[in-house]
Write a structure and sequence with these properties.
This protein is α/β, with parallel strands linked by helices and about 375 residues long. Helix 1 crosses helix 3 and helix 6 runs parallel beside helix 7. The chain is elongated.
């Protein structure tokens, strides 16, 4: 029996996207970001496909995600990029998970965890070069480098990488990009003068991987592009292919008279006798409620706008004189091959980014992998 909503994930597209990104990286290693359940596509499945496509590293946000990859048998280097004080550092060190560190206090915590684990912790020192999010400010960077160097001298940590993150790489020409590149180079030079010799220096996200050669260094960290969604919509798709198609079932079809209010609040009222279709997907599955009356889906080969409010488990479309049968497939978004909307189109209609569209697909929506021979 098929679930009423499915997210069909084309893993061959993930593999091809990573291969494209590897080519664009021009010799730099590729760390495929698979955080947030592989941007909604499935953590372990996306990770395996990315490695098959040529990635040599994986990146996640949280230690728990990294440990899930290890439990699934993934042995490639994995970096936890948002390490908090309360996470299981000792378990991460024991599992060979790389940890991002951007403060003296966190250096000390991770070094202590490594001592308990009986092996050095692999760390990447993060400099805040202008995003003002995680990482050490340029003023604090020397003290973090010194603390890391001291811990490395005692064998408790190994400084594997130096890293930062760009604020506006998706806005080519933004003045912050050049400023951050200069700041990162300064951070690297300071660390190297202090005696650190990291294996990898990394800064580039998807946008920088595709458009900013000087940001690629030893490794790039693409995220959204791995899944075929463009980080710079105004510059096109870059040859990427969207991997996710969100599909729902037409639960019911019925004729209603003119003047019929549709869904909660009657924000949509029919202006003629018409056919309504009930689609078995709602905001509990990740269809944005604020897409009510805005988003389009493909039903019976034609695009239809959502009529009235999106409910938790369902929404309605006005089918006019068409009368598809209950059980017919409805394409909410996909690569656009059959005329269905794309995640990028949904994002533009809602004033957001495609990242949010795919990552918000709920846990009760099964991820199906038609091209995975193992059925994973």
């Amino acid at each position: 029996m098929r679930e009423p909503v499915q997210a069909r994930v084309d893993l061959s597209a993930v593999r091809a996207n990573v291969a494209l990104l590897r080519d664009r990286a021009a010799g730099a290693e590729v760390m495929a970001m698979v955080k947030a359940e592989g941007y909604g596509h499935g953590l372990v499945e996306a990770a395996r496909a990315a490695l098959d496509g040529g990635a040599s590293w994986l990146g996640v946000a949280r230690v728990a995600e990294a440990l899930r990859l290890r439990a699934a048998g993934v042995t490639a280097p994995v970096l936890a990029a948002v390490v908090t004080p309360g996470e299981p550092h000792e378990e991460a060190v024991a599992a060979g998970v790389d940890l991002t560190v951007g403060s003296v206090a966190l250096v000390e915590r991770v070094a202590a965890a490594a001592e308990r684990a009986g092996r050095p912790a692999r760390v990447h020192l993060k400099a805040d070069t202008g995003l003002s999010r995680g990482g050490a400010t340029m003023a604090d960077w020397p003290s973090v480098v010194d603390a890391a160097g001291a811990a490395q001298a005692t064998g408790r940590i190994e400084v594997v990488g130096l890293m930062s993150h760009l604020a506006c790489a998706d806005e080519p020409g933004h003045p912050s990009v050049a400023a951050q590149l200069a700041a990162f180079q300064e951070a690297i030079e300071h660390a190297e003068k202090a005696g650190l010799r990291p294996r990898v220096r990394h800064l580039a996200n998807s946008a920088a991987t595709l458009t900013l050669p000087q940001a690629r260094y030893d490794m790039v960290r693409p995220g959204i592009a791995v899944y075929g969604l463009t980080p710079i919509p105004q510059q096109g798709t870059f040859g990427l292919r969207p991997a996710m198609t969100l599909v729902a079932e037409l639960a019911a079809v019925k004729r209603v008279p003119a003047g019929s209010g549709v869904s909660y609040g009657h924000t949509y009222v029919t202006d003629r006798e018409t056919t309504l279709g009930l689609v078995a997907a709602g905001y509990g599955d990740g269809v944005p409620r604020h897409g009510s009356g805005l988003l389009e889906v493909l039903v019976g080969g034609r695009r239809r706008r959502i009529a009235g409010r999106v409910c938790m488990d369902q929404f309605v479309v006005d089918l006019g004189e068409d009368a598809p049968s209950p059980g017919e497939e409805v394409l909410l978004f996909g690569p656009g091959d059959r005329g269905e909307p794309t995640a990028q189109e949904w994002a533009e209609a809602l004033g957001t980014i495609s990242y949010e569209i795919v990552t918000r697909i709920g846990a009760r929506v099964p991820r199906v992998y038609p091209d995975d021979p193992a059925g994973r």
